[in-house]
């Protein structure tokens, strides 16, 4: 009789394992790559835009009076640095002050709309109507009503900025996750506790969306206001130098408006990340 023995399992070679990388080192490496990408990609986009600008100006696809070459604009920067800096500071101050006023008022109005269905139904059509009016048509009326200077400019910034903030605040406060609402009900929390601990923190991502939409609009509002009623600022520079045919200096002021908008937007994104550190961990990333 043959001896039947159980077949021994064949030995398998374990795959070669890579040495474990400490979590902190992986995080630092990922952060370094992310920071490098965040720096290089905007720089590459800027170089592409400058190259296209130079090519269009070189081929004269657009008349040089309307789009001067990049070299002429750079010369305008170097010829009037102090004057351009002075007006940049003035415009930046108007953007920040008008944005702050619209942020406070927008959040308060959004709170009122979210707190009462009656208030929402009464005033939402009026807010939509105000937002639908082309703001540039109000410029002369603001000058007549408020005079020259900063008041009509700040009013123009406010009118352009407040609606996205109102809308995002009201939306965030009325879309509290159902599981959180049920949780606070089970704790018998008061209305103020519910607002402070759950509803407002849950609405902050939406509120920041409205703020980020409103920030570039603040720059647009400041420039429009300076066109109509300004005695200084980059909008005033654009209007004055374009009027005398110095479009290179006008374009230098336009570029400064864009740079100020980019820097203020980036600062707002940084505030959002510092204020909501949990947001990136609880949402999907690209």
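Sequence proposed for the structure above (286 residues):
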């Amino acid at each position: 009789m043959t001896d039947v023995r159980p077949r021994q399992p064949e030995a398998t070679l374990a795959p070669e394992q890579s040495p474990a990388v400490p979590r902190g080192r992986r995080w630092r490496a990922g952060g370094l790559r992310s920071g490098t990408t965040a720096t290089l990609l905007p720089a590459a986009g800027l170089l592409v835009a400058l190259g296209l600008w130079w090519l269009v100006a070189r081929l004269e696809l657009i008349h040089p009076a309307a789009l001067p070459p990049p070299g002429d604009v750079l010369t305008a920067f170097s010829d009037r640095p102090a004057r351009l800096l002075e007006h940049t500071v003035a415009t930046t101050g108007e953007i920040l002050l008008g944005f702050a006023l619209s942020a406070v008022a927008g959040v308060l109005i959004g709170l009122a709309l979210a707190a009462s269905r009656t208030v929402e139904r009464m005033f939402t059509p009026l807010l939509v109507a105000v937002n639908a009016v082309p703001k540039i048509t109000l410029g002369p009326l603001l000058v007549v009503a408020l005079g020259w200077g900063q008041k009509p400019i700040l009013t123009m910034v406010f009118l352009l900025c407040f609606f996205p903030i109102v809308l995002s605040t009201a939306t965030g406060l009325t879309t509290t996750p159902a599981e959180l609402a049920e949780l606070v009900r089970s704790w018998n929390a008061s209305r103020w506790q519910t607002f402070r601990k759950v509803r407002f923190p849950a609405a902050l991502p939406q509120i920041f969306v409205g703020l980020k939409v409103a920030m570039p609009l603040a720059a647009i509002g400041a420039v429009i206001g300076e066109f109509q009623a300004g005695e200084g600022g980059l909008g005033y520079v654009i209007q004055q130098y374009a009027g005398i045919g110095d479009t290179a200096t006008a374009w230098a002021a336009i570029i400064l408006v864009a740079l100020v908008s980019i820097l203020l937007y980036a600062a707002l994104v940084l505030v959002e990340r510092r204020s909501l550190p949990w947001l990136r961990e609880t949402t999907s990333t690209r």
